[in-house]
TrEMBL record:
Family classification: Belongs to the universal ribosomal protein uL10 family.
HAMAP family: Ribosomal_uL10
Gene giving rise to this polypeptide: rplJ
Organism of derivation: Devosia marina
GO CC annotations on file: ribonucleoprotein complex; ribosome
Protein name: Large ribosomal subunit protein uL10
Keywords from the named record: Ribonucleoprotein, Ribosomal protein, RNA-binding, rRNA-binding
NCBIfam families, per database record: PRK00099.1-1 (NF000955)
An annotated Gene Ontology molecular function: large ribosomal subunit rRNA binding
Known role: Forms part of the ribosomal stalk, playing a central role in the interaction of the ribosome with GTP-bound translation factors.
Biological process annotations from GO: translation
PANTHER family: 39S RIBOSOMAL PROTEIN L10, MITOCHONDRIAL
Length: 172
């Protein structure tokens, strides 16, 4: 690989990783092409990407952006998974690691916070950004629904009393 190509790869990695909510670094020794393709598809569906880059180039790319120093994780054949949603990449990587023993999570980063393998797995158990938004919308909607039903209740009660009074008057 020539210097110009290396600069391009580093610039591309910097651009990609700068907008990532979280980064997961893992070993992929002995992983089949089909399994690796499956991982790529899963991460892509979640709005992220999986990249294989030379360790030295990945370290150079990470130096130039505002991410925790995880350069110690780049030893041996590594793969980088990242997504804008801070929970998406760790969640998919942890689930994939459970199914594939040859995929070993080494650690990662979430912004300026470095994560070890257990930290990545803990992050994977958290709800995603979309799930949190749905819960928040439900919490905001619920009081409004209760207020509306409380406001309607007195009017409905008056209507029932008037209807009962009218039926009583007609019967008499």
């Amino acid at each position: 690989m020539e210097r110009a190509e290396k600069r391009e790869v580093v610039a591309s990695l910097q651009e990609s990783l700068a907008g990532a909510g979280s980064i997961v670094v893992a070993h992929n020794t002995g992983l089949t092409v089909a399994a690796f393709t499956d991982l790529r598809v899963q991460v892509k569906k979640a709005g992220g990407k999986v990249k294989v880059a030379k360790n030295r180039l990945a370290k150079l790319a990470l130096k130039e952006i505002d991410v925790a120093d995880i350069s110690g994780l780049f030893t041996g054949p590594t793969v980088i998974a990242y997504a804008e949603d801070p929970v998406a990449a760790p969640k998919i990587a942890a689930a994939f690691a459970e199914k594939n023993q040859k995929f070993v999570i080494l650690g990662g980063a979430m912004g300026t916070t470095a994560l070890d393998a257990d930290g990545v797995k803990a992050l994977a158990t958290m709800p995603s950004l979309d799930e949190l938004r749905a819960k928040l919308a439900g919490l905001v909607k619920q009081p409004a629904t209760n207020i509306a039903s409380i406001l309607v209740q007195p009017g409905a009660g008056i209507a029932r009393v008037l209807k009962a009074h009218a039926e009583k008057s007609e019967a008499a």
